[in-house]
Every structure is written in structure tokens, then in C-alpha cells.
Amino acid sequence: MDLFPKVFIKNYKPTHEIQLEFLTRLHRLLSIGYPLMPALERTKWEDRFVKLADTITQALTAGKTIDEAFELAAFHPHIVSHLYLSRTTGNLEKSISKAADTFRDRIFYFNKIKQITRYPLLLLFIFCILLFLMKQIVLPSFSSLFQSTSASSTLVLFMLLVDYVVYLLVTMAFIGLFIVFLWPIYTRKVTTNTLIKIYQSLPLCRSYIKAQTSLLFAAHFSSLLKTGISYYDIVQQMSGLKKQRIISFYSSYLKEELSKGYTMSSLLASLPLFDKKLSLLFNQDASSVHLTQDLDMFTEVLTEEMKRRALRLVTYIQPVFFVVLAGFIIFIYITIMWPMYELIKTI
Predict the structure, then answer these.
(1) Which residues, at least 6 apart from 288, have a Cβ–Cβ distance to it below 8 Å?
(2) What digits encode the pLDDT tens for the residues 179-210?
(3) Residue 266 contacts by C-beta under 8 Å, 6 or more apart in sequence?
(4) In whole angstroms, how far apart are CA 191 and each of 186, 196, 197?
(5) What proportion of the chain, given as a percentage, has pLDDT over 90?
(6) Which residues contact residue 65 at a Cβ distance below 8 angstroms, ignoring those fewer than 6 apart?
């Protein structure tokens, strides 16, 4: 029974959009009263969901948990983590709803960034081709033409500047390729503690990771707290979130320290990738009901703040690209025209 899902993973990986649509359809069926297995059968009424539904159904029949079944169907780790917590909360419908809502936001901002950067990146690629042609053809021709004039020294200077620009663009390209292709591979190989130290050393990255980690921790903690279990049992459950490594790592640490008698608020305040405001919520002598309300409000506020940051970033990306590109175009124009101007002065 385990063979089919492995073959399925190798041959088919659903797009983010398909994953979201499947979650939305499954949540709709569950919300109107269908049990899980009949709901999965009815998702197969749409051809695009047949492979997903078959894989999940076979995995569940073989004794897999709901999160393991979705993982075998190659769903995003963010979705799998939400479903993992439904083991304890027992509310699969709400877990699917939360997973769909948060995943929808991820897709929206990712597509927005792709849409905004597509045209500037195309222009930058064309500029790189022009810069290469100028370096290999135009400037050497000018060099032989101005060799016996005083403009030759100016041309040599501009040729050096062109070389520096080329090296800069190549370096940026390698950094971009590393971030897109090699960084995910690298992060899987290093320890979680090393990964946390790397995030701490990168200011811009640290700010985003801290907000994301605090948001996920608060949301998961609130969901589990509603079941009435203790803090220790909650972090024990969250330590199993292997797809969210930092949350899992911190939860394992919290579990060990809570057993020694430390308070949750003091422990949260000592962890660098948690928002300090999160520890203050646990510093109050509030009931579980009030703490749940505070955590839900904290999650809502932090979600809105992250949305504002994302929109601000999106609005800045395109203007910055165009300003940089305009600077490069002006540089090319000066590189070509300045030696000619120097030559004219000698006539």
C-alpha cells in the first residue's frame, strides 16, 4: 500500500493553486456535513482532483494519519503542519480552513511579486546583453580609434568601469541563483540551531522570520489550548511539527525547560526569534480562555502587520528596479558618448 504514494510523488506534484482549490473544496464538503472519506470521494467529481483524492484515500485506508496522507500527496509543508495539529484538536474542518486561508495569502503575495518583477527582470536581461555587446565589440572598436588621442585614457577608465559593472551583475546573478535553488537545499542539511544563528545575523531576514515564527507559534498554541490540555502537552505536540523546524526546535526546548519548573513567559522572552510581545501574553495571570483570546488577537494583529509589510515591499520592488535600470542605461550612454566628446575637443 505504501508503494503507490511514493510512485505518485515522483510523477506528480500539484501546483500551489491546485492544492488551495482542493483544500477549499474539501472544506466546503466537510462544512455541509459530509464525513471525511465520502468528502474525498466527491472531490473526484472534478478530474483535476482525482489523483490527489486517490492518494489521500489510499494512505488513510493504509492507516496513515491525515497529515501523513497529505504529505504523501506532496502538499506544501505549511498545509501539512496545520493538519498535524488536528490530531490533538480533533477539529479537522477548522484546521483545513486555517490552512487554506493562510496558504491563500502566501500564494497571493508570491504571485504579486512574480507579476511585478517579471517586466523589470526582462529589461535587466536585455540590458545585460547590450552591456556584453558593448564590452566585446563597441569599446574595443573605440579603443583602436582613439588610441592616438587624449581620449584614450578616458576610454580605458570607462572600460574598467564596465568590467566592474559586469562583475557586479554576475555576482548578483550568482547570489540570486543561490537563494532560489541552493538555499533550500542548504537549509535542509544544516542543523536547526545553525539555521537560527544564520537568520539572526541577517537583519532583514530576521525581522520576517521573527514575525512568521511568532505568528505560527501563537496560532498553533491557541488551537491546542482550546482543547484544555496543559502547556507542557501543547509544546510536546508542537515539537512534532517537523515541517516547521524552528517551531519544533523551540517547542522541544520549552518542553525540557518547563519540566524543570521555568515559567513560559521567561522562556519565550529568552528565544531570539520570538516577538517580545508574545512572552508578555503569558506573563499575566489569565485563565486559559482569556489567554486563548489574547493569542487569537495577537495572531490577527501580527497577520495584518505582515500583510502591510508585504504590500509595502511589493510597492517598492518595481520602482527600485526601474531606478537601478535607468542608472545603468545612463551609464552606458555616458560610456559611449564621453570618449567621443573628448575626441571632438581635440579636433
Answers:
(1) 225, 228
(2) 778 887 888 888 999 999 999 888 878 888 99
(3) 279
(4) 10, 9, 10
(5) 34
(6) 84, 87
